[in-house]
């Protein structure tokens, strides 16, 4: 006989509106082993929690059922209540009557009936629960940050400043990310490089940061507190331990590659640093454009290098890194607008995307900061087309958030650097942010023209060869317009990195519909993920501006710190165990476990499970032909009892 | 009174259960005939659970897991997929109408899909009528 207490939460009206909560509590009181059943407005509040604590004492309860929101929301909250009352935390059962009942029906009869069935199932299950002991593990104090853009840089610096050792993994040969490509930042128009490069240098100088450029994560093993990560160091063909960054090699190099940094607008050498302020300042060789790799002779860089740092034989190497927590800050790509043929990107030389224009403005860019078209002439009229591929059900439904503001910034910079007329084609102007509306008003004053209507098509001018015509419907006048211009700037959707899904798979994350990493909770845990110990920051979670990205980086650093600041931590006790008396020694469990937790003891002729490796999926329990494996907290008996309870009503 | 079926759901914690929560958070409406058991992984589902559900009088059983390849436990749902395919064959071999057992891969971000699947499956079970093949009368 157990002594069960049932606590039904109203969640204000969230639950009470479509479930008759007092009737549910009265119903609970009639169920087997239920000693006390109550309902209350907000069970998760302090008075609600105190009510549970008092009832545990007063009624000598040994099982608690909280009938409220999803266990993913408040299971931890109520487990703590049990622990504080001296009850084992695994004697708690949560019945989800909010997300899976009251919020998905308007019918109070249906809602109440379903809630009763779910509660009955929980009572059946609860009676079979047993106390479990959490495992205590040592925590590795180091942290890995993946992605060396502004989010990764900021998170790494914060953690390093607390004395923790940080591994900053960046797939390019320099840190800096997209922010290093920008010229000015909105709404303050301060120079991007001036605020970013000191931080890049701080990373380089910091004794607690190991910068791993030209590196990619290739395998992730372990779990929160003890990740064991394999990083692939891609061959640079330059030994950075010998290189003194004189860059004599780059001067001699005859190779020509396309500059990724300058968004393919210009060529670079085959041995190169992406831009003069790159960190580290040491070059790499691009195999694709290197004359030696292509033709088997050249080696001019090798001759120029006094340090003998050039190494054409260099291979990819693999480095093992052990950390307690990981922050992913892998950033974004711009949507490839070539498939949107109506805009002519990649077809008409006068059509640019936003990042290309950033490079045109930048004094370290391909034109030295002069706004010129590909033929070298200055544009006389420029159209900026907002929402290309975003807010578009045929492409990306989401708003990319920063395009309105950077497009306004472009307008300002065009006005500053040219005498061109500047036209915006926009759906709505979204200027939510500190100082953003003010910036918008300032740009309006700068004689920029705003046409409320999405650019529909860019075509070649029939009358003036070389010029373009933007077609759109002006939704204010209701007129269809055709505007001849010299230059068209597309503000494309911000999308996840092309390899974001691979990264999600490596670190066991979910992605949302667009492919951005899913947070644990959209409001209350925006930087945590469903994988314990893995945190996210910046645009890899969803499009956002630099201030929000930096704020998330600080937050993710604090989240990671809450793990690595501890020497030891508790892990879920819901692992599997083998009952040796009924194990037949078939080793099915050994074969299927993805974590190598079960092993065969040849002497005893039975399988054994290493709890430190077990993650509690329960796969082994369901392949065990003799039911010798017990998946703790999800035993056959517990699951079957819950089902019986659910089907009774 | 119209026939209101009882449908048992078994959902993995990381994808389908979270997807079901998302359906709730976004206030999607779907029929209330489904009662979900949460397990950590679809690979935990022993075929005996499904047989038992039908014995207990479930008119339909819906299993939900992560998309193959996206399992929180790497390979768990790949094993589940094979095992549940065999289970379906055995159920149908034993005389169960084909439409009563369904496996769906629903990710944590697919609240819409969860609601759609439940709506559609409930309608299907309603049209099949009460399940009597396996039900043990009490």
Describe the structure in your own words:
The complex is a heterodimer of chains A (649) and B (138). Chain A has 649 residues and is of the alpha/beta class. Chain A folds into five domains: 131 residues, Rossmann fold (3-Layer(aba) Sandwich); 175 residues, FAD/NAD(P)-binding domain (3-Layer(bba) Sandwich); 57 residues, no CATH class; 159 residues, FAD/NAD(P)-binding domain (3-Layer(bba) Sandwich); 57 residues, Alpha-Beta Plaits, CATH 3.30.70. Chain A has 17 helices and 34 strands. The relative contact order of chain A is 0.11. The model of chain A has no long low-confidence stretch (mean pLDDT 95). In chain B, 40% of the residues lie in helices and 17% in strands. Chain B contains four helices and four strands; from the N terminus they run βαβαβαβα. Chain B has a four-stranded parallel beta sheet, sandwiched between helices. The model of chain B has no long low-confidence stretch (mean pLDDT 95). At the A-B interface, α4, α16 and α17 of A face α1, β2, α2 and α3 of B.
Largest interface (CB within 8 Å) is between:
A-B, 51 and 50 residues
What is the arithmetic mean of pLDDT of chain B?
95
Uncertain regions of chain A: pLDDT < 50 for 5+ in a row? none
Order of the strands making up the biggest sheet of chain B? 2-1-3-4
Average pLDDT over all residues of chain A:
95
- CATH classification class of the largest domain in chain A: Alpha Beta
State the shape of chain B.
Answer: globular
Strand count, sense and closure of the main sheet of chain B? 4 strands, parallel
Which percent bin holds the helix content of chain A? Answer: 25-40%
Question: Oligomeric status of the shown chains?
Answer: heterodimer
- What is the class of chain B in the CATH system? Alpha Beta
Biggest β-sheet of chain A: count, sense, barrel? 5 strands, parallel
Give the N-to-C terminal Cα separation of chain A. Answer: 22 Å
Structural class of chain B: alpha/beta
CATH superfamily of chain B: Lumazine/riboflavin synthase
- Tell me the CATH architecture of the largest domain in chain A: 3-Layer(bba) Sandwich
Please name the CATH topology of chain B.
Answer: Rossmann fold
Number of contiguous helices of chain A: 17
SS summary, helix count of chain B: 4
Q: What form of chain A results from the Cα inertia axes?
A: globular
